[in-house]
Amino acid sequence: MLCVCAVLLVLAALSLSSSADPETHRPRHDSGLEIYKRLLETKRKDQLNALKNLVELNDINQQHKIIDIMLKGLFKVLEDSRAVLTAANLQPDDPFPRDDKIKEAYSHVIENTAFFGDVALRFPRIVHHYYDRNADWGVLLRWGLRFCNLTGVFAGGTHQHVLTLVRLGGYGYRYLHLQDY
Q1: Helices 135-151 and 160-169 meet at what angle, rounded to 10?
Q2: What pTM did the predictor assign?
Q3: 107-156 tens-digit pLDDT
Q4: pLDDT digit string (tens) for 96-105?
Q5: 124, 133, 137: which is closest to 63 by C-alpha?
Q6: Counting beta carbons within 10 angstroms of the beta carbon of residue 141, is it exposed (0 to 12), middle (13 to 18) or buried (19 or more)?
Q7: Is 128 exposed, middle or buried (0-12, 13-18, 19+ CB in 10 A)?
Q8: Where does 57-99 have alpha helices with state H?
Q9: Helices (DSSP H) in 97-134: which residue ranges?
């Protein structure tokens, strides 16, 4: 009886893993990636602290100005980083890059895509005000979300929910309906 239960558990696990979302990365061991993930935690804390300060600003006009500048810069960096990674023919599930220029572009995609999610979830109306007027941003964001998911950087981590909420909320596809807070 115990063997039958063990076989059923193995079969259930295999069926769950084979029906996984194709946009989700399969785990692999990559020491460069593991080091980057630890460094990313510090970067994400800094980003979240900056957003906390923006929320506490309590001046909608200032928030609009700051978010406008931030989004323009974010998508410019995302566009430039995409060009570098494409030129290097780097695939998201490749081993973590060793070349400094490619490593920088890789990290910019990860950090800026996640940061966009944080900003959009905290300031949906303001973000939509700018995002909806820039058609190219949707293409870049869809690419960034897919890249992030396939790298495995956020898989099982504390920040995976941001990417999931952005995708489910419709960014890259359109429209997230939450109240600004």
Answers
A1: 140
A2: 0.74
A3: 999 999 999 999 998 999 999 999 999 989 999 999 998 998 889 887 77
A4: 999 999 999 9
A5: 124
A6: buried
A7: middle
A8: 60-87
A9: 100-122, 124-131
